[in-house]
């Protein structure tokens, strides 16, 4: 870890801890988030953690904020606890709702069942939220499943769609445009204004995708309309 502080705006600093995405970064990012929350207290407007950085928005003079960051992160050690919550998210893996499932299988030289096994056997940390409310960027998927984003994004991706982009994976919380490789769909509601904190997932949480049948998916309230 090498601390660097970059100016993002007049009242916002970007704290960079790493240069490359790695699951091993997460304990450091969680520890840094906790220290900065405690150090800034009521002067913290917003703290947004990501793969390698934390964006800190504040209502202090910039010089004072920078000094506070340096002081807060001095001697930082990784969080050795279990981190956030653990979620098991059911997914119906099928080409009708995940059109790139057979594409990924052909590209990797694996069968569809093997793609499903590889995707669902890992526990993924949630690195960051972004793109849309409740959209959790997770990783890292098995290298054999890594796939570039679609050259032409879809205008409409169904809510709950589970996809892969490079070595990241995510589930769309709402209907939106998107260019990820879709391999299935979850019935779980990922963003809900009636839920405390709105988003089911938070940075530092861990996610395990669990394969379910079409019937199970429907019983859970899933929408089986084919993805265009």
Mean pLDDT: 93
CATH superfamily of the largest domain: Cyclophilin-like
Task: Please write the CATH class name of the largest domain.
Answer: Mainly Beta
User: Could you give the order of strands across the largest sheet?
Assistant: 5-13-6-7-10-9-12
Stated plainly, the CATH topology of the largest domain is called: Cyclophilin
> How does CATH name the architecture of the largest domain?
Beta Barrel
Q: Give the class from helix and strand content and strand pairing.
A: alpha+beta
Approximate strand percentage: 25-35%
SSE order:
EEHEEHEHHEEEEEEEEH
How many structural domains? 2
Radius of gyration: 19 Å
Q: Which spans of ≥5 residues are poorly predicted at pLDDT below 50?
A: none
* Cα distance spanning the termini: 43 Å
Biggest sheet architecture: 7 strands, mixed
Number of helices: 5
Helix content: 10-25%
- What shape does the CA trace take? elongated
Task: Count the beta strands.
Answer: 13
How would you describe this structure to a colleague?
There is one protein chain. With 228 residues, this protein is of the alpha+beta class. β6 (123-129) and β7 (136-139) form a beta hairpin. A seven-stranded mixed sheet has the order 5-13-6-7-10-9-12. 34% of the residues are buried. It has five helices and 13 strands.
């Amino acid at each position: 870890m090498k601390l660097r502080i970059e100016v993002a705006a007049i009242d916002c600093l970007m704290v960079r801890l790493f240069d490359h995405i790695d699951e091993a970064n997460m304990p450091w990012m969680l520890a840094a988030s906790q220290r900065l929350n405690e150090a800034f207290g009521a002067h913290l407007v917003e703290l947004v953690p990501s793969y390698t950085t934390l964006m800190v928005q504040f209502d202090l003079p910039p010089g004072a904020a920078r000094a506070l960051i340096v002081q807060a992160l001095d001697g930082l050690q990784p969080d050795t606890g279990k981190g956030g919550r653990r979620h098991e998210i059911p997914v119906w893996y099928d080409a009708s709702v995940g059109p790139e499932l057979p594409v990924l299988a052909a590209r990797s030289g694996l069968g569809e069942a093997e793609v499903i096994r590889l995707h669902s056997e890992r526990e993924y940390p949630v690195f960051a939220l972004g793109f849309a409310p409740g959209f959790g960027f997770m990783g890292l998927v098995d290298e054999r499943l890594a796939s570039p984003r679609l050259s032409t994004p879809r205008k409409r991706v169904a809510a709950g769609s589970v996809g892969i982009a490079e070595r990241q994976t995510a589930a769309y919380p709402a209907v939106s445009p998107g260019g990820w490789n879709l391999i299935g769909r979850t019935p779980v509601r990922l963003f809900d204004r009636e839920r405390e904190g709105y988003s089911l997932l938070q940075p530092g949480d861990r996610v395990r995708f669990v394969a379910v049948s079409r019937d199970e998916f429907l019983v859970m309230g899933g929408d089986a309309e084919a993805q265009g």
